[in-house]
Amino acid sequence: MPIKIKDKLPAIEILNSENIFVMTETRAVSQDIRPLKIAILNLMPKKVTTETHLLRLLSNTPLQLEVDLLHPKSHKSKNTDHRHLEYFYKTFQDIKGKNYDGLIITGAPVETLEFEKVDYWEELKEIMDWSKDHVTSTLHICWGALAGLYYHFGVDKYQTPEKISGIYKHSVENKFSPIARGFDDNFLAPHSRHTEILRKEVEKVSALEIVSESEEAGIYIVTSNDGKQIFVTGHSEYDPLTLKEEYERDIKVDPEKTVIPKNYFPDDDPNKTPVVNWRGHANLLFLNWLNYYVYQMTPYELNK
């Protein structure tokens, strides 16, 4: 898919090396097409890595996308060069007068904190409130999903005894949900989190539907009945070595509490190279969101 992004974004070179077609801004403006306008609120510390993960999946469609990268103004990033943020990113203040076809809110390594203790929580609440009237559909990922469920519907998160980390088997609860079209009866997806949501609390909210879950990792996909909010508690966008890098990071901090990601390393041996078995699901998940919840629903003239 042609993705309209700034010409020098580091992800372009990486994706081109993987034979993924990315159209830069210079080429995109020559096409007489109304691109879908997608905003990505990147809350992850290593923003270049997350940009690449998401743009890789957004590339798997013939639709043209125009992507705006956002970061919270109320948080100072310690892991991304400020020059990268200044050149490639915008803040909510820059775009709050605009409308978007889709918004992606990423995960963030703050899940052990109460939501109200996160330094950009007030800004995130403002963005989520704005999204209700200015975005056709929002895809929330991992902590972003927990934050969205809490803010929009009052569904709280709970600490798990140990980190949920690895590749887990999932089932589809509602095969007629557009987000699950084409999913296998059982499919695999990565998770990496310390908290979870409870089925009994989600089921109390009539505006929500549980679409998919895992016996080991818990609820995976929840949608709002109007399709404006999609919540995915896992990280289908992760590349082959992301869980390995997280494991190596965690074991340096606290080796006694760090668990080997489940069903990830062959023979549970961290010295062996992981095999990717979730790529097909990841591509279909993002394709379904873009097609059924964004493209099929959004007006041609966004201001209307």
CATH architecture: 3-Layer(aba) Sandwich
CATH level 3 topology? Rossmann fold
Assign the structural class, choosing from mainly alpha, mainly beta, alpha/beta, alpha+beta, or little secondary structure: alpha/beta
Shape: globular
Q: What's the helix-strand series?
A: EHHEHEHEHEHEHEEHEEEHH
Oligomeric grouping of the chains: single chain
N-end to C-end Cα span: 26 Å
CATH H-level superfamily title: Class I glutamine amidotransferase (GATase) domain
Helix content: 25-40%
Strand tally: 11
Tell me the domain tally.
1
Low-confidence stretches: none
Q: What is the strand and helix layout of this fold?
A:
Layout: E1 3-4, H1 10-17, H2 25-28, E2 36-41, H3 47-58, E3 65-70, H4 82-88, E4 89-90, H5 92-95, E5 100-105, H6 121-134, E6 135-141, H7 143-153, E7 158-172, E8 186-196, H8 199-203, E9 208-214, E10 218-224, E11 229-232, H9 242-253, H10 279-295
Parallel strand pairs: 1-3, 2-3, 2-5, 3-4, 5-6, 6-11
Antiparallel strand pairs: 7-8, 7-9, 9-10, 10-11
